[in-house]
């Protein structure tokens, strides 16, 4: 059971764990502040477009073949959607700090590695934000035949460039800190599982599967939720909208169901979860089919990542299922006394001897 005292003990275990958490907190604070300001500037730019359109309603755009109203509507939709993109970035940072604490408290090396990778992927998404802002700055400045005040969008662009630089710096720092923390946590698996290399390998697969479920909480659920808010509600009469709604409602219960399933080593339930993940993949392909023409590349990257992680969850779930009945169950069940009752006597003796070892690099 996790207690406040245990959390403090794990965070203060060494200089590397303290630096890891401190760096994660600093990154989250800086990026959330920047994203909040960017979001406010984008909303101000949207208001500027509406005001300029009202004041210059008779104007035309480009060669006059496209109505002003229709083209302005495209711009307004873009700035409305970018708001949700900013919310997604802020949500990711909130999820990231929770995962960072989770990785340190549970001493999960796989989770530390995954967070470093995801932090690096965020640089790509930040770069896409910059490219999109530059594209719209040019479009609003040149293609619209009525004046639009672009100061908020320019400020947002500069802040997005600054945020991308910040992400690069923190990604490099996290790669170094993650390497140090992973080396420290490597001994934890040995203490928990023992010297059996095969058992250690199976335990790592279990860890990666649980990690994939935690990532799916953000990627699968939020992508599906954002899609439903942004696109499906506008045209809910289509059949695919109902499929995506049902899948969105079932995602979180399914992920919890999978975590309980892998701990209890139940074959039938794991097969059900894997089938559901393929349904999630179909749902996300439908999302791409409906939204690919929007040119919203940041959104498309999120959906593709959702498909990749859903496939990873399927593969890791099948791999974990292959390891059922091979002695790992006693090591992955939650709880104290119940878990110990499932351990063989010689393993209890080995664990008792391992608890005398302490790791401290201070």
From TrEMBL:
Give any Gene Ontology cellular component. Answer: Golgi apparatus
Q: Which residues cross the membrane?
A: 20-38, 87-105, 112-131, 155-182, 203-229, 241-258, 270-290, 296-319
In terms of InterPro entries, this protein maps to: UPF0658_Golgi
Q: What is this protein called?
A: Uncharacterized protein
Q: Which UniProt keywords apply?
A: Membrane, Transmembrane, Transmembrane helix
Q: Which domain of life is it from?
A: Eukaryota
